[in-house]
Amino acid sequence: PASKERFRWTASDGLQLVRTTGHGQRHMCATCGGVLTIVYDSQPDCIWPVAGALDDESVEDGEWYRVVHICCSMMQPWYRLPD
Questions:
Q1: Across the strands, what pairs with 21?
Q2: Is-contact 23 71, C-beta < 8 A?
Q3: What integer pLDDT is reported at residue 1 of this predicted model?
Q4: Do residues 49 and 7 touch, judged by C-beta distance below 8 A?
């Protein structure tokens, strides 16, 4: 995730924040419907960008402040998380 106060859009024309789940909202493109982020209700100070929507050069060292595993309760029993 990125800090909400440090995250900046390079363009915001057609950008909408839409409630798509009971636990968060997503920034979506009103033109194509592409999903760009999720903002969880439990973490309103964080923006979770979709990795494919980022330009590598736009992320500075130290911009990301943690690495997480998500949806672990639904992973297959044979899968082992790396150390």
A1: 24
A2: no
A3: 79
A4: yes
Cα separation, 63 vs 66, in Å, equals 9
Find out whether 35 and 50 touch, Cβ atoms under 8 Å: yes
61, two tokens = 């060292």
d(CA 56, CA 66): 17
Entry pTM:
0.66
Name the maximum alpha-carbon separation found in the chain. Answer: 44
Q: How many CA atoms lie within 13 A of 34 on its CB side?
A: 11
DSSP sequence for the chain: -EETTT---S--TTEEEEEEETTEEEEEETTT--B-EEEETT-TTEEEE-GGG--GGG--TT--------SGGGS-TT-----
In this model, does residue 11 exceed pLDDT 70?
Answer: yes
